Amino acid sequence: MELRQLRYFVAIVDHGSLSRAARVLHIVQPALTQQIQQLEEELGTSLLHRSAQGMQATDAGKIFYEHALAILKQVADAKSAVNQTTDKPSGTVALGIPQSASGALAFPLLSAVRAAFPDIVFQLTEELTGNLTEQLASGRLNLAVLFDDGQLGKFTTKPLVEEEMMFITRADSQFACKRKSITLAKALQVPLILPSIQHGVRPRIEQVVRDQGLRIEHVIDITSIAILKSAILADMGATILPMSPLLPEIERGEMRATPISDVNLSRTVVLCSSKNIPLTNAAMAVEKLVLDLSRDLSLGGKWLGTTSLV
Prior knowledge:
Layout (H helix, E strand, L loop, with lengths): L2 H13 L2 H8 L3 H15 L4 E4 L2 E4 L1 H25 L7 E8 H18 L3 E8 L1 H10 L4 E5 L7 E10 L1 E5 L13 H4 L4 E4 L5 H11 L7 E4 L2 H9 L5 E3 L5 H5 L3 E5 L6 E9 L6 H19 L6 E3 L2
Parallel strand pairs: 3-4, 3-5, 8-9
Antiparallel strand pairs: 1-2, 5-12, 6-12, 6-13, 7-10, 7-11
Helix pairs in contact: 1-2, 1-4, 5-11
């Protein structure tokens, strides 16, 4: 198996066509086809099939595609690490962030990296927490913002903030609390609109509810934060979340956030990297920037509901 075969295969999947991939790779199509056939013979399985939509990965091909991306990224990182200097880091840095934290951190981070490190190609991806964990473990990501649920032992972790979760409704909701705070038991009597279990925030909520000897009786599972917002604004129920993903609506007065008074319902936001794959100078520079930025956002009151841990 050769690296060029991995590049060829990834290009075909990305472009959905042998002819387009051949043009991008600057090789003739028969040579490309031959290399893929050799790769499939070595692996003992078909990686691609032709459909009405073009060339697509088989089930085995989809698995191999993820591994190929991770391998190619690690090779690129290794080359970059050899050539770059600490005073002017360069290369590609891929960082993943969960949907429920991107509202507070994503745009400030993009702006900060661009200003501080113009030679770094910064790739910021927003994903479900479970997807981020897999991509970080495989090497497709250099860094990931995750939530410490006690299951991050395979990663190097650096705490960023402790983020309080609130009971959040539409401002004029029938479910809104009339007092300045609400108990967890009272909050659970309302139909709850919560992120699905793949989100890092959901297991934390479930754990606290169990620890209090309570149950979530009425819940609407929604994967998308955008759809969750729409459901709250339609007054289908309330949610229990940090303020950051709903901050624009809260600041505009469209939603109301009420503290939960009788339990410590919060999540620890951490920056993670692989214990097995060393960080490049560029990735280390971005890592330090994330730590500094999260501290400044928290202490400056721009990441509401958080306590800095940096």
